[in-house]
Design brief:
Two copies of one chain form a homodimer. By secondary structure, chain A is mostly helical. The first copy, chain A, has one domain: Four Helix Bundle (Hemerythrin (Met), subunit A) (Up-down Bundle), CATH 1.20.120. Helix content of chain A is 72%, strand content 8%. Chain A contains five helices and two strands, in the order αββαααα. Chain A has a two-stranded antiparallel sheet with strand order 1-2. In chain A, strand 1 and strand 2 form a beta hairpin. In chain A, helix 1 packs antiparallel against helix 2 and helix 2 runs antiparallel to helix 3. Chain A starts with a helix and ends with a helix. Chains A and B meet through helix 2, helix 3 and helix 5 of A and helix 2, helix 3 and helix 5 of B. Chains A, B: Pfam families: CASP_dom.
Chain lengths: 145, 145
Amino acid sequence: MTKAKISLVLRLLAVGSTAAAIAVMVTSHETAKVLNLSFDAKYSYTSAFVYFVIAEAIAGGYSLVSLLLSCKPVFWRLVMMMDVVIAMLLSSSIQLHHAGWLPICGQVPKFCDQLTGALIAGFVAAAIYLVLLLCSLRSLFALKP
Amino acid sequence: MTKAKISLVLRLLAVGSTAAAIAVMVTSHETAKVLNLSFDAKYSYTSAFVYFVIAEAIAGGYSLVSLLLSCKPVFWRLVMMMDVVIAMLLSSSIQLHHAGWLPICGQVPKFCDQLTGALIAGFVAAAIYLVLLLCSLRSLFALKP
């Protein structure tokens, strides 16, 4: 497999995992009853999860665009610089704030499972970008005179 | 100023800001009284803040080592690849989990101010690594035949 094909496959995987992260996070919703008071658990009540969804959406959209751009040799410098920015955006979005939700996980286990799933998909997307960047750097080093 | 000097200055700044982030986070501590019950607020009670301190310590230590390594041309490939890893580690550590602490900030304002300060210093360190990476890429692009 050529380096260009590996990069295309990695970008496709990034599109898939960011889309999965968004879908799982956005559909997470559960209502629980505690002491006769019913309460709603929803991702949008926590700013950190809203940030997660926005970051995954930007990264997913960019990954799609970069699929097209990376075919054109004119754009490879721009794509590689943007890859760095997106990689850092992705890693800033997968946070440990899930820990902050643990006290309510006894009441809303399905909701917590979905959060964990979304965060894992986000983590996979960030890992894909790390591999993508290291691969690009390696091929760039090989070009060096 | 040559590119090598800019890189050295950026790495020195990264050492400074990670050290500041660790110092401010580790010394944050406050005791508050709520309804005659006194409670302790400490960074080490939250796993996300412990992760922050560990990530900043790794990044700070690496920045120091890279100051020496980046002078030796043999290591520049290794340094650039490690820069990518450290940049992603740093951006994963500056999290929005501060939001999770807001409810107690009325009781422990000094503690919360210190947390915010530490997170800002961590953010600065991540921004420095972003600039460092984009600069390295630019000079690498210039070398390309």
